[in-house]
Amino acid sequence: MTKILFYLALIAMFAVLVVLGAGIFSLVRGGTFRENWSNKLMRLRVLFQAIAIVLLVILAWAMHHSS
User: Quick one: DSSP state of residue 1?
Assistant: First the structure.
C-alpha cells in the first residue's frame, strides 16, 4: 500500500512541476496566451499541490502505522 501511495505522490509532485513550468512559460510569453491561461494554470497548480500534500500526509501516516 505504501508503494502505491509513494508513486501517486511522485506523480502528483511531477504534475505540480509541469503545471508550474507551463505557468512560468505563460508569464514569459505574455500577450493573449497569458491572459487566457495564467489564472487557469495557477488554479490547477494549487489543486495538484493540495492533492500532493494529502497524499504525502496519508503516506506518512501509513508508514508510521505499518511498523
Answer: -
- The C-alpha atoms of residue 5 and residue 30 are separated, in whole angstroms, by 37
- 3 vs 30: CA distance, rounded Å: 41
Closest CA to 39 of 23, 20, 16, 21: 23
Tens-place pLDDT, residues 19-60: 999 999 988 888 888 888 888 999 999 999 999 999 999 999
Instruction: State the maximum Cα–Cα separation within the chain, in Å, rounded to a whole number.
Output: 54
- Predicted TM-score of the model (pTM): 0.84
CA distance 20 to 63: 29
Domain boundaries, the chain: 1-65
Range 10-47 burial, b when 16+ CB lie within 10 A, else e? eebbebbeebbebbeebeeeeeeebeebbeebeebbee
